[in-house]
Amino acid sequence: MSATPFIMDHPLIQHKIALLRDKNTGSKEFRELIAEVTMLMCYEATRDLPMKEVEIETPITIAKTKVLAGRKLAFVPILRAGIGMVDGALELVPAAKVGHIGLYRDPVTHKPVEYYCKLPADIGEREVIVIDPMLATGGSAIDAIKMIKRRGAKNIKFMCIIAAPEGLNALTEAHPDVQVYCGALDDHLNENKYIVPGLGDAGDRIFGTK
Ligand SMILES: O=P(O)(O)OC[C@H]1O[C@H](OP(=O)(O)OP(=O)(O)O)[C@H](O)[C@@H]1O
Ligand SMILES: O=c1cc[nH]c(=O)[nH]1
Ligand SMILES: [Mg+2]
């Protein structure tokens, strides 16, 4: 059985996503908002990181307390748009490694086309969080996760800012073991497989390419 997707309902996240949707938000502000939303979402997606008990000497006494158990984390952005989320993720987990997967959607078939894959050598020992702002048909996320699994990773999460129901269903069916985190769940896909209402083409808005 697949894990229930986690749809963020935090007011700060919803507010910032509303600004992202606005077609009058320019590239500079768009990039900043993507980083801020990612940081807030990462806070939630790292909630179950394992901890260990330690003893720390405070100025008063010895405290039995908890720190991160040091399980290694890797963020894997799906190029290009996923790159926009890297800074926000590293702001919260600066020691994480970063892999890259290059995929673009063919404009006619809407199927993902692979062009790059470079992951940390020890990816099999890491908890992996795949990041991409948009989950539309789900094709890119499904293929990216297949590529990461093929290289040995077992513990994988997927984090997107906006998802379409079609993509969310396809992803949870293809990879029931992957916990999915979405900033917002939108209504549907249009005839060009863009998310409605969505925010348009995330990559083009981040990099100013349209
Ligand atoms: O769920 P899907 O239907 O596969 O669509 C989602 C993909 O589309 C976008 O990338 P795009 O192909 O526009 O590439 P880009 O990031 O280089 O702009 C987006 O960033 C996802 O990777
Ligand atoms: O709505 C969409 C769908 C795919 N990719 C995007 O950037 N936006
Ligand atoms: Mg794009």
From TrEMBL:
One annotated GO biological process: UMP salvage
Q: What is the main EC category here?
A: transferase
User: SUPFAM superfamilies in the record, alphabetically?
Assistant: PRTase-like
Cofactor needs: Mg(2+)
Annotated 5-phospho-alpha-D-ribose 1-diphosphate binding sites: 80, 105, 132-140, 201
Q: Name one Pfam family in it.
A: UPRTase
Give every Phosphoribosyltransferase domain span.
8-209
Which pathway or pathways does this protein act in?
Pyrimidine metabolism; UMP biosynthesis via salvage pathway; UMP from uracil: step 1/1
**UniProt activity-regulation remark:** Allosterically activated by GTP.
The EC number(s) attached to this protein equal 2.4.2.9
- What would be one Gene Ontology cellular-component term for the protein? cytoplasm
The entry's free-text remark on the cofactor is:
Binds 1 Mg(2+) ion per subunit. The magnesium is bound as Mg-PRPP.
Indicate which residues the UniProt annotation says bind uracil.
195, 200-202
Which family, according to UniProt? Belongs to the UPRTase family.
What is its biological role?
Answer: Catalyzes the conversion of uracil and 5-phospho-alpha-D-ribose 1-diphosphate (PRPP) to UMP and diphosphate.
NCBIfam families, per database record: PRK00129.1, upp
What protein name does the entry list? Uracil phosphoribosyltransferase
Originating organism: Zongyangia hominis
